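Need tokens for this chain, all 274 residues.
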Amino acid sequence: MEAKLRHPFCLRQVKNRLTKTVLRDTLYLMKPTLLKFGTPNAKLKEMVKRLGVRLATFTLPAGYTCPGAKDCLAFADRKTGKVTDGEDTEFRCFMASAEARSPSLRNAVWHNLELIRKALKDSVKACADLIQNSLPEKFDVLRVHVGGDYFSEKYLQAWIEVAKQNPEKIFYSYSKSLGFISKYALPENLVVTASRGGKYDDLIDLHGWKEALVVYSETEAAELGLEIDHDDSHAAFGSENFALLIHGTQPKGSRASQALQDIKRQQKQLALAA
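Here are the structure tokens for all 274 residues:
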């Protein structure tokens, strides 16, 4: 007996499903590779909670993209994660330590750098378009470079263009690439805090820029007359100089490591006394 033909309605369903599948796969293949953005860490979540903003982050490889770094310079090997400090390192960049612990983070930051470099070979506009097309759908504030920095003038120009295209958003960053930044009038919504401890600290004093200074204790910050920024709100929205308390994983036996131990001991004592 001959097999009965399937109902025409069923055949149309199969055909439609196949068409949708082919279309979906084609669109996936045509979709350009985009940059990877992150969510707030514990520190930044405090700002989100206090101010009620939607915050996203962007990161590049620490050290490799920091031409102005000196006191905090450190590199995590792309494959192994092994950290190498710079010749003048006094305290280790916390993101280099974070990359050392996380292969997925290393993959993400190098993915971003490779795409950025490829776009810059074309033009500043191509890089700006890449960033713009990759931005998260919903955010109010973006920290540019949890790790990394403006590693070239053209790269800085790309972010300037992105900030101009999104005047309702706040883009903020810490930077030691002050030689590049001194050449441009930044849009108001691209907020850069000069990070003291780099190769171009003289430009901070010359231009009177807002700056952040890493301190080894709350007492040191108080003696300098600086508030400690515990949630990045000073960096994103403030206009005055401020301090950052040493954090992250520090080289064993270093002054920074001892200071970090002292801070943790004090915090534990306060917690027990509460």
